[in-house]
Predict the structure.
Amino acid sequence: MNTALSPSRRETELETILAVSRLIGSESDQHGILVQTLDILHDKLGMTRGIILLVTPDKEGLILDVAHDATPYEKGRLTYRRGEGIVGQVIETGRPIAIPKISEEPMFLDRIYNRRKKVKEEISFICVPIVCEKEVLGTLSVDKKYENDSDALDHDLQILKIIASMIAYDVKIKRMTSEIQSTLEAENARLKEELQRFRPENLIGHSMVMREVYQAIYQVAPSDTTVLIRGESGTGKELVAHAIHAASPRTGKPFVKVNCAALNENLLESELFGHEKGAFTGAISQRKGRVEEADGGSLFLDEIGDFTPQIQVKLLRVLQERTFERVGSNVPRKANIRLICATNRNLEQAIMDGHFREDLYYRINVFPIVLPPLRDRRSDIILLANYFIEINAKRMNKEIKQISPLAADRLLEYRWTGNVRELENTIERAVLLCTDGIIRDDHLPPHIQGSKSSGQNKSGDMSSVHRGTLDDRVAVVEQSAIIEALKRTKGNMAAAAEDLGTTSRIIRYKISRYGIEPKEFQGQAE
């Protein structure tokens, strides 16, 4: 280092190092630290056109991160390959380079500032590696006015190495943070895509509560774990059971359903386990039960809360020992089934009342899935309505274009005590009555047409009434318009945006907000 430096120069250098040190200690924004570091080098030491390039994730090149006082550059786009130009050489070797005159250096590429054409004076160029824990993370480079003093140039290089070492750890943290963020974003996108890909074809809805149901199906389907599906009547418990079976390794085997509430005790026992000839009056031949029919597949017991105590004991044996006996026989048979149960009853209360066995409850409640009532997933109502419109319009050979805003309001305001099943029947009626391609308020049942005034319950509680009236009605119109545009453009978001006179960015935002899946409209046309 040049010992002939003036005291003022040494003082300036110490002030520079101190300023950068304070900056790193006080500033939390990593990008801001790098920008201000280049400002300090410019203001205090006359090191102009400072540039920081960082090694790309594949470590095969450099990408521009920060450039001081430069307009004609593209951050994050301008790159150098390893070994290319002076900065590429610094990355390749891990050693600093000082160029006395860039005009005489053929390897100096001058990509960012175009100095040879715009700067009249002779320029020196200094580039040092940014190294942390023996890993080269990038380069720090500056311009200096040519002074015809090799000792001064070397001294500037040493100062720049000190600055590079000071910011190296911060660059390391920034890089790690960026990599972690990219990893998390990629994983989040993958999980979202996987969740959307997995969404069972027989289930409609993109609300958060339904996504939790899809995730539960995804988790339990690959196993043979017993599942208990709980929810009000009409929420789609059988559809969830079908989805679990379809996504399981047993998908090629039978899916057998038994409606436990539809049969009395004697018939239910025979229905489940089968019977031998002569086992009871009317048993004129041997018959397999549903347990045998479901061999290798899944047995779905709907409304299991209606089981009598006697049937509960026999079902408990099936779950514990995986064996059963036909009615009128004492020969045990193997039960190779995956059991899926469903109920709309409060089993915990039934246990307290002595109507349901506690040991059976714990056997079937291994993996519960709770289906939300339709009133708790109102963002799915219009999606479901459109789905049912499409199905019924095809069946009735009608062309239905849309739901009127008022009719959509009524659908959103109604409490839907019958859940999805009631909505399905309501839409079937509306399609039947519709004559002009638009589902209107008067096509809905009278009790739904008056849902706004009937939303208050007997106690005067208005909690069940649909809130946020203006925003929700605007959302209904937007959602309906976007769906119709996607239908017309066969799921093309850019074309839908043009059709609606808006931008692709806004359409993407609205589609995400309303949980609309454009892929569902591919191949469709109005």
Notes: The longest helix spans residues 150-198. The mean pLDDT is 83.
